[in-house]
Amino acid sequence: MNDLRNEIAGRLAAFPRLSLETSGLRRAAVAILLSPLDATVGYVLTRRALNLRRGAGNYALPGGAVDEGEDAIDAALRETAEELGVTLTRDAAIGLLDDFVTLSGFVVTPVVLWSSEPLTLRPDPVEVDEAWFNPLAELDHPEAPRSEAHPDGGEPILRMYVRGRWINPPTAAWLYQFREVALHGRWTRVGAVGQPNWTAR
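Below the sequence we write its predicted structure tokens.
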């Protein structure tokens, strides 16, 4: 598995990621958290708690706003600890993907985290309804990504396959770019992917 870690880290290091100015938008980070899963490697996805004011029940990567004095890596590590009960150090961060502007007004940096040891998830029920590991191979579903017309006339919405469902951007966009860049070495941008208007709430 160290070979896969090194391949992913190398591709992320070579990728000319886009770093965006905030210009009035808040910064946030999400974690693409990787660790051993049986005989393979998995990534973590969550379903947000059902009583949240924003994004209740949505499929999401662990993450949130960057606090004062933090960078994206600090924020991704802190949110991973708060939401999932998983504590990692900065050397778990093996690369970043493009900054991405969400309809909710955040500039989000996806941070790829790697644990060489299997992880036990202890989701905080205040924030997370459910959390689980998906095998990386699922990201290569033969129909993924699925592009669908935007119901309000915007850019097409790109969806990724997870556990029998087709999930929406922005989470789908981050997973798609991770697949393309980190797993296959294809420099792919997702900043223009359509986002459902309800994700602004």
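The two ends are 39 Å apart (CA to CA).
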